[in-house]
Design a protein that fits this description.
The protein is an alpha+beta fold and about 375 residues long. The protein has three domains: about 1-165, Sandwich (Immunoglobulin-like); about 180-230, no CATH class; about 235-384, 3-Layer(aba) Sandwich (Rossmann fold). The protein is built from eight helices and 22 strands. The strands form five sheets. Strands 2, 4, 6, 7, 9, 10 and 11 form a seven-stranded mixed beta sheet that branches. A seven-stranded mixed beta sheet has the order 18-17-16-19-20-22-21, sandwiched between helices. A hairpin with a 2-residue loop joins strand 12 (about 180) and strand 13 (about 185). The longest helix is centred in the first third of the chain and has 20 residues, at about 15-35.
Length: about 375
Amino acid sequence: MKWLPVASKTRLTPRAWGVLGTSIALLALGQGLGYPVLQVLAGAGIAAVAISLLTLPRRPRVSVDRVLYPDRVECEQPALARLMVRNESGRRQPSFVATDSAGTHEAQVLVDSLAPGGAATYHYELPTSRRGPLPVGPLTLSSTDALGLVSSRVTIGSPTTLLVHPRRYAAGPATGIRRRHHFEGPVSAGPLRGSIDLRRLREYVPGDDSRYVHWKALARTGQLMVREYADPDQPRLRLVLDTRASVLDPGQFEAAVSVAASIMVASAQAGHRLRLNTTSGTDHEVESISDLLDELAVLQQSAEDNLGSFRPGRDGGALVVLTGGEGAAILAPDLQSAHWPVVCFDLAADEQATRTDQSIYLIQACTAQAAIDAWSSLSTGAAA
């Protein structure tokens, strides 16, 4: 999207105010003491400011196009803004400074002088150290005269948003979940393509649908066989994220969000059905990885302790609980009977430990990386 500056604000710089103040003082001193040279110096200073006001262009006559790429990025990964500037006038455009804000950060780009119809492209990096939506813009164009006495500023365009996803660590899918399988071999780990899976072959009985006849088995054995189908048992994972500010401090909560993103993305890539729950009321069946990361990017903690209204579903499958302190003793046992395996993370712990407590795998960790390392150490055989 291209923007054209339409109005500008011209103002004196601190240097100009200093020149004017000094000139007035010299003028008064020259008149009081009778020194013409002081009056001449005062007149020169006032004239310099006046000439700067008259000669400074009112606004840069350019079109500006700013593009973010990518518009979604993982935390601490590079993201850039591309600034394309074109001189739309028939005269040479003097140099000016383009200032773009990104949260509390400001990026300044010195745009060189442009010939009539000329164009230039500039790039600058955006801060991605914090998860969440990062407002970028609006863009400010400013120029000053040669003496630095008068500045002209114009604000163009509208803010846009860079969505910073949580940081992810290399993780495996949920442990202890049985892979789909039938008599001809393992089913692909990718998403299911249909609504039924082939369960077994059996002998034909009158009334069976002829469409299910297995002709290869007939040719091999000489006996009429039919396929028997069943609904697929697709692996499922429910992840419960504790958003209570009384349980996790901001740093621990960021670690919990990173762990959630790491485990859920790995499980989604393995073809698991996913559901995200939070203690603040989120109940989201994940349709795509991008939607999941977008939701985790904007997720915030809740100041209210509303655990009494927390009622996640009980549809079986694996369960991962991300909480801290006493939250592990409250959340995990209540959901244990409806899910298997159950893995609970205590991210408010002071030390690293993994143990089993009444069929619940409890991982204590103080960083996201330590939590994922402990998660990876839970083999499929151990969880079985």
